[in-house]
Specification:
There is one protein chain. By secondary structure, the chain is mainly alpha-helical. The chain has 23 helices and 2 strands. The longest helix has 44 residues. 77% of the residues lie in helices and 1% in strands.
């Protein structure tokens, strides 16, 4: 076959890859371009009002949540990975379940629980907001750290002990430094989730940059000022990404192929009981207490509601929006991952560009999507009344921009485990690339695809900032129902939608655990 014919056969794949990348990267690029032409008047007004306080609260909250999740997630990961104690296997996976609990749900539960003995003013603080976020976000660090600790060579730890290091010294001076890339990746995810949070910070009266974008958008209707403030979030996100890459410094630590992996040390007596009690306490505080309080509220509210539409309407809207966004992310991510595998460095670069949205806070993506969709509305000869801004399609588009990286990186991690020799054999037998992908590569990467789908379900179902800013009239998700009820301090009215969110999230977490058990990787 001639070189020209080969290039023509690969052209459709290139066109699809470039098209997906261009569509999902445009909102981020559009907003990033606005940094080059800032509005002096808008920034002067923001600086004279609330911007200094927003910057201070955002930085303080980030530091507190990062410190808390790194300490808690890393400590629990080492406890589970390096020790044997009663219930270790079950409890080790239960520690992942807080992923299903949105921060704003845990926030209003603990706000009501603690306001009784301490008073509402004492509870509404940055410190307790950080605690609520730590309890729901530490699983990101825990999953990355646990996977890294499993790969620590037993001979390396034996050498450390032979040099006189005790258990804690071995953990601090050997295990943690070797897990640094994984901890940096987990910490980056926590930082991005904290930076984009709106529901939790609003409950505790913490004025962050993300909350500021929402207040400017709804309070003044000035989308220009909201876009300018969103660029501050964009800069903060870029700084976080650069910091994470600096912490990794390209380092990868793994045991030699012939080296034994970490062998858990059996705990006995009080030590074993203390380990089991510690894990149980974390699970009880992070999941048990919110679940019990929500069930009690739901039983006492007797179906009362403060929003239009019942539970079925909100569940339907949630599943429609989240399902469409997750499915699109998975399909587009698969296209990009297959392209990266077949087209080498150029394909990988396009995949990374398309993943930029995941590194951006939700309000930033929402503003960028509105600017992009408004330009498309003006440019296209659409029928009367047909616009993309404020439509379900526009909302799904913004969610895809935000979460495409989860689908792409998840499928990519699975495809990396497929043997190149197997693919080459299929090609020698005459199978075309599409058939090879459907019959060979994706079936072998099925658990990675399952893990990506589960993470997408968790993220899209509980997502709040983008939905609040872009949802069209009549599309009310469970997250919006919780937001509306808690905004009026009607905790009992938020119980039913919160339980529905937890039910969907727990199902997704169960699928994630199955995928991890079958060998899927945690990816960043």
């Amino acid at each position: 076959m001639s070189a020209v014919a080969v290039r023509l056969r690969t052209l459709p794949g290139w066109v699809a890859t470039v098209a997906v990348t261009a569509v999902v990267a445009t909102p981020v690029v559009v907003l990033a371009a606005s940094v080059l032409d800032p509005s002096v008047e808008v920034w002067a007004r923001l600086w004279a009002t609330r911007l200094p306080g927003m910057l201070r609260d955002t930085a303080a909250l980030l530091l507190l949540v990062l410190a808390g999740t790194l300490v808690l997630g890393t400590g629990l990961a080492w406890l589970v990975a390096a020790h044997r104690f009663p219930g270790r296997r079950l409890l080790g996976w239960l520690l992942v379940t807080p992923l299903a609990v949105p921060g704003y749900v845990a926030g209003f539960v603990w706000l009501d629980t603690l306001s009784g003995p301490f008073g509402i003013r004492a509870v509404r603080s940055l410190w307790l907001c950080a605690v609520a976020l730590v309890l729901t976000l530490y699983p990101y660090v825990y999953l990355f750290a646990r996977a890294a600790f499993r790969d620590v060579g037993a001979a390396t730890l034996d050498a450390a002990r032979a040099l006189g290091l005790g258990p804690f010294g071995t953990f601090r001076r050997v295990a943690v430094p070797m897990a640094r890339p994984a901890l940096a990746a987990g910490g980056a995810l926590v930082a991005m989730e904290t930076l984009t949070d709106i529901g939790t910070v609003r409950l505790f009266n913490v004025g962050t940059l993300a909350d500021g974008v929402l207040r400017v958008w709804f309070g003044t209707g000035d989308r220009g000022a909201a876009a300018e403030l969103a660029t501050a979030l964009l800069v903060a996100a870029v700084v976080l990404i650069a910091s994470e890459r600096l912490l990794r410094r390209g380092a990868r630590f793994a045991p030699a192929a012939a080296e034994r992996r970490l062998r858990p040390r059996r705990l006995a007596g009080p030590a074993a009981a203390a380990a089991t009690a510690a894990v149980l306490a974390v699970v009880a505080v992070a999941v048990g207490v919110p679940l019990v309080r929500l069930v009690a509220w739901a039983a006492g509210s007797a179906g009362a509601t403060t929003v239009a539409g019942g539970l079925g309407h909100h569940v339907g809207s949630t599943l429609t929006v989240a399902g469409a966004a997750a499915a699109t992310c998975l399909v587009a991510g698969t296209v990009l991952a297959l392209s990266a595998r077949r087209r080498g460095p150029a394909g990988r670069v396009l995949g990374r560009v398309a993943s930029l949205g995941y590194a951006m806070p939700g309000p930033v993506v929402a503003v960028g999507a509105v600017v992009t969709l408004a330009a498309v509305d003006r440019a296209l000869p659409l029928p009367d009344g047909a616009v993309l801004v404020g439509s379900t399609l526009g909302l799904v588009f913004a969610l895809v921009v935000r979460f495409l990286a989860v689908g792409y990186q998840g499928v990519e991690a699975g495809l990396e485990r497929v043997s190149p020799e197997t693919v080459a054999s299929a090609r020698v037998l005459g199978a075309r690339p599409t058939r090879v992908a459907l019959a060979v590569e994706l079936p072998q990467a099925r658990y990675a695809v399952l893990a990506a789908a589960a993470l997408l379900a968790i993220d899209t179902v509980k997502e709040l900032p983008i939905t609040l800013l872009l949802r069209p009239f009549g599309v009310d998700t469970l997250a919006v129902w919780v937001w509306q009820a808690t905004a009026e301090s009607l905790w009992a009215q938020a119980a039913v939608p919160s339980l529905a969110l937890l039910a969907v999230g727990m199902g997704a977490v169960a699928a994630l655990l199955v995928a991890l058990e079958r060998g899927a990787d945690v990816v960043s």
